[in-house]
Amino acid sequence: MKRLLISASPLLGMLIAVPGFAEDAAPAAAAVADVAAQAAAAAPVPNKGDTAWLITATLLVVMMAAPGLGLFYGGMVRAKNMLSVLMQTLVVFCLLGVLWAVYGYSLAFTDGNAFIGGFDKLFMKGVTPESVVATFSKGVVLPEYIFAAFELTFAAITPALIIGGFAERIKFSAVLIFMVIWFTFSYIPMAHMVWYWAGPDAYTSAEAAEKAGAVAGFLFGKGALDFAGGTVVHINAGVAALVGAFMIGPRLGYRRESMAPHSLTMTMVGASLLFVGWFGFNVGSSLEAGATAGLAFFNTLVATCAATVAWTVIEAVLKGKPSMLGAVSGAIAGLVVITPACGLVGPMGAIVMGLLGGVVCYWGVNGLKRMLGVDDTLDVFGVHGVGGILGALLTGVFAAPELGGTGVYDYVANAVAPYDMSAQLIAQAWGVGTAVVWSGVVSYLGFKLIDMTIGLRVSEEDEREGLDHAAHGESAYHL
After folding, report:
1. pLDDT tens for each residue of 207-239
2. Where are the transmembrane segments (predicted)?
3. How far apart are the C-alpha atoms of 404 and 418, rounded to whole Å?
4. Mean pLDDT over residues 245-273, rounded?
5. How far, in Å, are 11, 77, 226, 347, 455 from residue 241 at the CA level?
6. CA nearest to 168, candidates 472, 470, 463
7. Contact 162, 155 (CB under 8 A)
8. How many CB atoms lie within 10 A of CB 305?
9. Short-list 337, 435, 351, CA closest to 394
């Protein structure tokens, strides 16, 4: 005890001898603490609830691809091609997931120009567990890794949708090469044009907003609204499927032989997985577990219900009997139509969009397809293309506050801006037209290049045998 007092005595002496020093140091220490506190307050931290929701949403979209889309598409082809469709959807998703990490994320979500981003995050360079990205609320952020993973699922499942346009007759190697081309030159630029912006915190004044707008994507700058992918996903993929169906040609025996789905049970299971997974797709696009997520959830649910009912009723009236294939097609049509609008319209607007989607997509599959004379095997354009176009345009109508929509938020005024429906419809038309032309040109050139080199189509012998055995040496079923 004595030794402790002796060793402490010099310190006690210093404290007694220099009281003025202690008094001077106290304000300085307080000032440093204030600066540190201000810095901490200025750097927002991801909310654990938002992060947990985005992780869940990402998993739901992965479920849409494998097994959802594979079972949905696979059940609609003939038994001899079931495994080939499962193989294509799975491998395409995984291949493009890798390419997203290598260069896709950087080109889609970094500064570049109005049409494409840059190479700042090539190979995920600079992305760390601590790095964050903006959401749609000022001062709210997400971990960048989970945002990149969420966007990866969009980038990987969208090209997989295209497979349905030319199923049962295309080479597996041709599928993979085309998807790399289309992903690079169509999906990534469309994602950048529609979804890239500086984030809400950049909009502090009119001058700041002008500078932020200068680095935004082309269609974002035009004011086009696309909450979860009407243009980027559905129109983009639907047009590519249509071009592919035209260029590859119809299946052998098309309109002469029975090509009925081999397992509507599988299709129903796949459609149900897509239905559930779509809530990750649409609701996750809010990027936060908040009020907008709740709106997107409710709208996705009621629009899908309305479209299913509409398709079922119109099929019963026109064909005499409602079908299981028609009901699930109606559900997918409703999901497609509400995708660009789910966080922007009110519930009654969502129901009207769903009803119209069921009717118009029914026509796209049963009327437009015959008018075009194309063998779009699994009606990708009739549902995704037509539904995406309808949904994108109707977003401009039902996003109006007077019709129950949210309007367009002004981040400078921190309030909803006055809504001009005619101007918004023009902006939506810009989005639709750009998606149709861009995807159409890229798809044509991609298919043409492959046809001139390795060829697009399997041999007649392989097509008659079925792609399960001819392309993969396996069978989905052992009968």
Report:
1. 999 999 999 999 999 999 999 999 999 999 999
2. 52-73, 85-103, 145-167, 174-198, 227-248, 260-281, 293-314, 323-341, 347-365, 377-400, 425-447
3. 14
4. 97
5. 81, 16, 21, 31, 17
6. 463
7. no
8. 17
9. 337
Question: DSSP H helical segments within 170-263, as ranges?
Answer: 172-182, 188-195, 206-214, 218-222, 236-248
Residue 261 has pLDDT above 70, yes or no: yes
Q: What is the 8-class DSSP label of residue 132? A: E
Retrieve residue 82's tokens.
């079931």
Tell me whether strands 141-143 and 409-410 are parallel, antiparallel or unpaired: unpaired
CB atoms inside a 10 Å sphere around CB 395 = 31
DSSP letter for 417, please: P
DSSP code at position 399: T
**Rounded Cα distance, 368 and 381, in Å:** 10
- Predicted structure pTM score: 0.91
Report how far residue 297's alpha carbon sits from residue 197's, in angstroms, rounded to the nearest whole number: 24
Residue positions counted in the chain: 479
- Using the predicted structure, report yes or no on whether residue 106 has a pLDDT greater than 50: yes
Identify the CA nearest to 398 among candidates 310, 306, 328: 306
CB 442 within 8 A of CB 185: yes
Going from the C-alpha of 347 to that of each of 20, 64, 299, 350, 351, the distances in angstroms are 69, 24, 5, 5, 6
Distance CA 51, CA 44 (A): 13
CB 241 within 8 A of CB 380: yes
Return the ∠ at Cα 151 (arms to 150 and 157), rounded to 5°: 95
| Dihedral class, residue 289 (left if φ above 0, else alpha if ψ from -120 to 50, else beta) | beta
Sequence-ordered list of residues with C-beta below 8 angstroms from that of 142, at least 6 positions apart, any chain: 46, 50, 51, 54, 132, 133, 135, 287
Contact (Cβ atoms closer than 8 angstroms) between residue 72 and residue 267 = yes
